[in-house]
Amino acid sequence: MIKKLMKLPLLAAALGGCLLAGCAGLQPEPGSEAVKAHPWTGRVLVFGTEGYMLDVLGYEASLIPPRSWLITNLPFKTWKGRKAKVEGLVLFAVDNDRPHHAIRLRAIDSGQPIYVPLPVWNPDAGIPPEIYNIPKGTYFEDDIKKLRSLEGTTIWANGTTLKNLWTANSQVAIPIDNAEALRVIQISTETFAHVDAAGTFLVVVKNQRGKTGFFPFQEESIYRQNPIKQSWGKEVVECVKKRNVCMGMPAEALEVSWGKPKEINRTVTSVSNSEQWIYGGTYVYLKSGRVDAWQDSSR
Questions:
Q1: Residues sharing a CB contact under 8 Å with residue 261, sequence separation 6 or more, in sequence order
Q2: Rounded distance, CA 99 to CA 121, Å?
Q3: How would you write the pLDDT of the chain (299 residues) with one tens digit per residue?
Q4: 151-223: what CATH class?
Q5: May I ask the CATH architecture of the domain 245-295?
Q6: How far apart are CA 171 and CA 19, in angstroms?
Q7: Predicted structure pTM score
């Protein structure tokens, strides 16, 4: 009994040290942490085989649970082309009431757990840990399968977000018209230092003048059907292509030209209906569904 009592202070001291400095012996084995469902759960992530600086920086994921920020990225040479399945969200620590999360995956070929650390979540910012981009140089297998159905088809540029095509030369960009028809040549996973890759994949296209370029895929950057109607008339069609507004253009043509307005104010009288479409500091006035006037149209 005396021996047991003598051991208690030693045990308490050891536990105190673990609480202050972290105790590896008390941590769960990698891959055995409690997992919470995540929107990516069950999806297969592919480690890309090409990409800017991947061979130097590696993939932003680790075999070591992110109990600190001192983690080592997965090396490009040994992980390129491999796949991992997303298991879910894991919680490792709470620092100043802010949880540290990571996405846990499991390598399909070896069964190794893999961790993608997430930024410290600040609840006040209103951005939950589920909202996060996948590591650079990786992509979801199901995403690229869906997108490759576009190869060989024609899409149309949404000129409110897509105004130029990128090229491999950082000094050369190809301007395109709004709603210009683009022939899809390839869906690529390659990355370039000079491309602001908001999307995961690059869509390689040929424009109406036979020039080839690419852009990061985002659904809002394209139309899958021609948005221009010849019934609008030649003048309106030309306005839309140049992202302009003109008198008498129908509301649907204005939306293709400038996009959805930030706000719409409607006035209904006994003889007519009118609307005010607000685009930042520009106000466009429509009567009976057609542009009647605009104010401060410098955009």
A1: 255, 277, 278, 279, 284
A2: 6
A3: 444 444 444 444 433 334 333 444 456 677 788 898 888 999 999 998 877 788 888 998 999 887 655 678 999 999 999 999 999 988 876 666 666 788 999 999 999 999 988 776 555 555 555 556 788 888 999 999 999 999 999 999 999 999 999 999 999 999 999 999 999 999 998 878 788 655 578 999 999 999 999 999 999 999 999 999 999 999 999 999 999 999 999 999 999 999 999 999 999 887 788 999 999 889 999 999 999 999 985 55
A4: mainly beta
A5: 2-Layer Sandwich (3.30)
A6: 54
A7: 0.73
